Amino acid sequence: MKLGRTGIALLGTLVVAGTALAHTGATGIVKDRMDAMSEIGDQVKAVGTMLKTGALDLPRVSEAGEVIANHGGAAMVKLFPEDSLHPPTEASPAIWTEWTKFQALADDLRSAALALKSTADEGGDKSQIAEAFGALGETCKSCHQAFRIKK
Ligand code: HEC
């Protein structure tokens, strides 16, 4: 899948909007996961900006992939203990009724981030980075559509 300019811009916008609004007043595990998601969002934004402006810093892309991968998989599901739904969370209760699916999406995030990292490590060109970045963006979208309630 290839992410066009519009896609990249859109992804950036979504990430920034999500970060700016939701954080206020969060405590405990909800704050921890919002912080983790925001850090993921910052990395996505950094790579998205590079793709938009054309100045590709491959070691930085690799680092972004690594940081996101470290937040994915088991690290991410740990931030969602059962019924941790205190305000201002945007997490959906469906996470715990569809736990296997949620876990799989957290794993997808990790794999896609690692794929972005290896594309960068292997000296990928702009279209290869854009493709890996687009695939990563799809994992955010899939999980948010299923499990995040936009306030
Ligand atoms: C496995 C599911 C899952 C994946 C994958 C995922 N997210 Fe999230 N994300 C969530 C959930 C659930 C919330 C709401 C958490 C809450 O409010 O308690 C969230 C919230 C966010 C927020 C808002 C944080 C805040 O401060 O309120 C941002 C930004 C975000 N995600 C970015 C991303 C990006 C970028 C990706 C992909 C690179 C991604 N997420 C991948 C489930 C996921």
What is the topology?
Blueprint: H1 5-22, H2 28-53, H3 58-71, H4 73-77, H5 94-97, H6 99-121, H7 126-147
Helix pairs in contact: 1-2, 2-3, 2-7, 3-6, 6-7
Bound molecules: heme C.
Heme C is lined by residues 15, 18-19, 22-23, 30, 33-34, 37-38, 40-41, 44, 68, 76, 89-91, 102, 105-106, 109, 136, 139-140, 143-144, 147-148.
Q: Which keywords apply here?
A:
Four Helix Bundle (Hemerythrin (Met), subunit A); single chain; binds heme C; 151 residues; mainly alpha
Structural write-up:
By secondary structure, this protein is an all-alpha fold. It has a single domain (5-147), classed as Up-down Bundle (Four Helix Bundle (Hemerythrin (Met), subunit A)). Helix content is 74%, strand content 0%. It has helices at residues 5-22, 28-53, 58-71, 73-77, 94-97, 99-121, 126-147. It starts with a helix and ends with a helix. The structure holds heme C (HEC). The site of heme C has 29 residues, from helix 1, helix 2, helix 6 and helix 7.
